[in-house]
Amino acid sequence: MTIKSVLLAFGMAALLLAAGSGHAQTQMLDQVVAIVDDDVVMASELRERVQGITQTLRSRGVEVPPEDVLIRETLDRLIIESIQLQIGNRVGARISDAQLNAAMERIAAQNQMSPEQFRVALEQEGQSYAEMREQIRREMIIQRVQSGNVNQRIQISEEEVDNFLTSPEGKKLSQPEYRVLHALLPISADAPEKEITEARAYLQQLLQRIRGGESFDQVISGNSGPYTFSGGDLGWRKLEDLPTLFSDIVPSLAVGTTSDPVRSPSGLHLVHVAEMKGGTQIVNQTKVRHILLRPSEIMTSEQAEAKIMALRERAEDGEDFGELAREHSEDIGSAAEGGDLGWTMTGQMVPEFDQAIANTETGEISDPVRTQFGWHILEILDRREQDMTQDAIRAQATDALRQRKYDEELDVWLRKIRDEAFVDIK
């Protein structure tokens, strides 16, 4: 079957009339439209995808391509998806129900609905919630397959990062971002001085409340005085993306603080910096070493806990913690180094380990702590504050370069697997 004959399969051709119980019964005949390695693409699957794309384009006011073009491009997309899903199946890529549930909850939240409300809304639109779940599962597998195959093709050198950081895009990347709230009390440019003075006095009253601890949002939105404010949340902005009036003020404000009233031709403004990210990043780091014992078939969790407690007592009695780690720790990555994990920061370890670090004084050995890996004791060697600004900027630059290369490499990889696959379009 050619692409042209596939077009017929979408229309009224694929309808069979069969006599039964004295009247005609109509059935849709499904057909294979493409063989893709060990999989097939069915006419019904192609038809449903085309219908879905057509509905989406029309709902967005986008012109729908000619039918033959739409079918050809959709079939090619299904072929590429099939190849990737087969790769995922061969390497054992799996999406658990918990991961899928979390994805569905995120989609519902993006639509400002609870999961149950989202399910009902889909069904009211004639869509199957179960089918959508399976489509999301397939998309997540494809994303995992793409990430695993494409990322290993990307190499980013230190020189590339250096060059990027000297470019206009790179310089902008290193600038801090601010989330700015703004309240404008409108006053005409030719307003009498008495009106301006009264408005300033009113704003000063509101400022006293804000600086006394009340929320900027609540004070402005709860305003019951003689003035009506405009403005609102400007969202996250780089300094150069803010209006000139604000870009001169914002750098002088600490997070959570509000400017004095600022006059402009449109009125009096209050500028509030709600949040900031980027800029100087000072983090607290802890130098720690640990001993890990993993429960197994020959050592229960209770036995591992008892043994780790005994090792803690030996260390407390003066035995060298590092030597005990080399002899007993089952953490392959750190045992040879005496259990040394280097300088760590909050969020780098699992939550239970982070909590144990926070609860243990410098120079002390923690009580036994249970994590998903087993039983630990840890020793806090030192603490420090570290300026991670340049590390964070370089990490951002690396991510930007990786994303730029990712899109290019993904296109190359998709063409490669398409060329290498056995594809027979009927």
Descriptive account of the structure:
There is one protein chain. The protein has 426 residues and is of the alpha+beta class. It folds into 3 domains: 149 residues, Triger factor/SurA peptide-binding fold; 101 residues, Roll (Chitinase A, domain 3), CATH 3.10.50; 106 residues, Chitinase A, domain 3 (Roll), CATH 3.10.50. Helices cover 49% and strands 22% of the residues. It has 16 helices and 13 strands. It has a 4-stranded antiparallel beta sheet with strand order 6-5-8-7. A 4-stranded antiparallel beta sheet has the order 10-9-12-11. Strands 4-3-13 form a 3-stranded antiparallel beta sheet. Helix 7 crosses helix 16. The termini are close together. The N terminus is likely disordered. GO terms for molecular function: peptide binding; peptidyl-prolyl cis-trans isomerase activity; unfolded protein binding. It holds the Pfam family SurA_N. It catalyses: [protein]-peptidylproline (omega=180) = [protein]-peptidylproline (omega=0). Keywords: Chaperone, Isomerase, Periplasm, Repeat, Rotamase, Signal. It is found in: Periplasm.
